[in-house]
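User: I'm writing a short report section on ligand binding and want a predicted complex to refer to. Could you take this sequence and phosphoenolpyruvate and write out the structure as C-alpha cells? A short remark afterwards would be nice.
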Amino acid sequence: ERKAALDGAKGPGATSDGHKVPLLANVGGPADVDAAVEAGAEGVGLFRTEFLFLDDSTKAPSEEKQVTAYRQVLEAFPEGRVVVRVLDAGADKPLDFLTPGDEPNPALGVRGLRTLLDHPEVLRGQLTALAKAADGLPVYLEVMAPMVADRADAKAFAAACREAGLEAKCGVMVEVPSAALRARSVLQEVEFLSLGTNDLAQYTFAADRQVGAVSRLQDPWQPALLDLVALATEAASAEGKSCGVCGEAAADPLLACVLTGLGVTSLSMGAASIPYVRATLAKHTLAQCERAASAARAADSAHDSRIAAQAVLSGE
Ligand code: PEP
Ligand code: MG
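Assistant: Sure. The C-alpha cells for the complex follow:
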C-alpha cells in the first residue's frame, strides 16, 4: 500500500512550498536506465562509465562501443539532463592498464582525473565519443570529472572538454576536501559542482570507505561533512552556478531535506530511493529544511545531527 502511494506520486522533486530540487538517478550502466525512468527520475545525475572498461583490462573500449553505450542512456532522457562522469579508475576501482600497481596508498595516489591526465588519450577518447553520442539529440548533456583537488585540475579538465569539441556543460565532483574549501576558485574554471559524499567523507575523516571498522566515520550525517557541503553550495550560489549531490547521502530522505536546506540544487541517487526522497521532500517547506540544516550542523556527532534534524522536520 505504501509502495502504491509512492508510485502514484511522480512528478518533479520539490518542497511543499514549491522550491524545486530535481531528483536524478545514479546509473552504473545501461541496465539501470529502465529503473531510473520507471522511478520518474528527471534525468541522470551520475552516469558512472567504469562498466565500459571492465570487459578488457588491457585497453580502453573502442569508440564505437562507447558511443553506443552513451547514446543508450542519453536517449532514455530526451530533453532531460544527463550528467556523465568520465572514468574514475584507481583506488576502489582499479584498472590493470591504467592504475599503478605499486602505490602504498592507492586512494591517495593516481586515481580519477589524475589517471586521465596521465593518459590523455583515454580522456580524449571518452569526450569525443560523448560528443558523437549526443550529436543531434535534444538532451542536456553535462560532463564531470572525479577526484578534482584544485583549480589546476578543473582547468585541465575544462581544456580537455573544449579540445574535444564537446558542446556540454563541464563540471567537477567535489570529493576532496580541498575542492570544497576552495570551491569558488575551482568554479572559475567550470560550470557546476557535484558533491560525491562517499569519497568526500572518506577523505575528510581519513577513513577508508572499504574498511568496515571505520564505517562510523563514513556517516554522511557527520557535521564536518555538512560544513563542507555548505562551503560548496555557498560558493556555487555566489558564482550563480549549481551544486548537486550524487553520493549516497542524497538517498536518505531526511538527509535529502537537510541537503536541500544547505542549498544543494539537485539530488542524484539510486533509482529505488527516488520515490521516498520525493515524498519526504514534498512534506516540508524550504524554510523547515533550512532550519533542519542549521540544527544538524550545530550538533557534535552524526547521531545527534540526525536527531536534531528529525526534531525540526517533525515539528517538535
Ligand atoms: C562519491 O564518491 O560519492 C561518488 C558518487 O562516486 P563513487 O561512489 O563512484 O566513488
Ligand atoms: Mg567518488
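A remark for your report: The beta strands are 23-27, 43-48, 81-85, 140-145, 169-174, 192-195, 242-245, 267-269. The pocket of phosphoenolpyruvate (ligand 1) is lined by residues 46, 48, 88, 175, 196-199, 246-247 (CB under 6 Å).
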